[in-house]
Fold this sequence. Notes:
- By secondary structure, this protein is α/β, with parallel strands linked by helices.
- Helix content is 52%, strand content 13%.
- The chain has eight helices and five strands.
- It has helices at 17-26, 34-42, 46-53, 55-67, 87-96, 106-115, 127-141, 155-172, and strands at 6-10, 30-33, 75-78, 97-103, 146-149.
- It has a five-stranded parallel β-sheet with strand order 2-3-1-4-5.
- Helix 3 (46-53) packs across helix 4.
- The chain is globular and about 45 Å long.
- Shikimate-3-phosphate (S3P) binds at residues 13, 17, 35, 46, 80-82, 119-121.
- The site of shikimate-3-phosphate has 10 residues, from loops.
Amino acid sequence: MRDERNIILIGFMGSGKSTVAEVLHGMGFNCIDLDALIVERSGRTIPEIFARDGEGVFRDLETEALRSLAGLRRAVVSTGGGIVGREENWILMKALGTIVYLQAGWETLRTRLAAGEGRPLADKSDWSKVEALWRRRLPLYEKADLIVDTDDRTPEEVAERIMKAVSRSWELGVTSPGPS
Ligand code: S3P
């Protein structure tokens, strides 16, 4: 039974959720990228959804995609950075498995976001706005079952940490693995 559980990765844009999910995939987990699922099902890119329909519609599609994962087994789910904003998403994530927050400092995030594309809420012409969004969300991310600092760790080291903490808690039959 414990081998059937899921890991839900949360964290701000640029925290490395997709990369760590890939590493966990290599360790035997199925891998689900919630943003990729939304794109596949809607037939539109995320910037297109934001530009044409607005953030509210994107958030509805996000909750719907999360809800559709009910019954998932032995998977790692990488979520979008804004998943933590709705109470309903927390209920759905908790029902799926252990929620793991990939923590990263603002400098790390900004550097990664500056190098990336396709994120409507990471406006490179106004970093103070992006930083303010990150700060607003911090207390929400911290509601995770497990917090893993990623700043000075490779994705492989982060994945190892997660596996160690999560399998220990699953052995013990508890949800929250405690500090890592
Ligand atoms: C968002 C993060 C993005 C994506 C969308 C909104 C956010 O995912 O879901 O652009 O609100 O933080 P990543 O965190 O994978 O970049």
